Model the fold of this input.
Amino acid sequence: MRRHVLSLPFVALTAAALTVATIATVTLGACANRAQEAPANAVGADADAHGCRASAGYAWCEHTQRCERPWELAQQKQFAPDAAQFAHYCATGSAAPAKPPQPE
Done:
């Protein structure tokens, strides 16, 4: 009966490969866990209660029920691109009437 004997280089190479694979798995797993724990002051971590990111220019609009960029919505809906007009549109669904010029 013939016995199969594993050579020493094969055993050593297999053990080294398993060691490297284990270290890589542990190291990469630690990195993946760390990436999920972003600090509150990280860029893009400023989402409001609706998920709108102010740092990207988004604000919640009750009328459209979505995050909007005020200047883009103003262009689409033909109202002046300012905070008061955006607030009025999002509250009522219509553009606020233009203010008449004030006499000096």
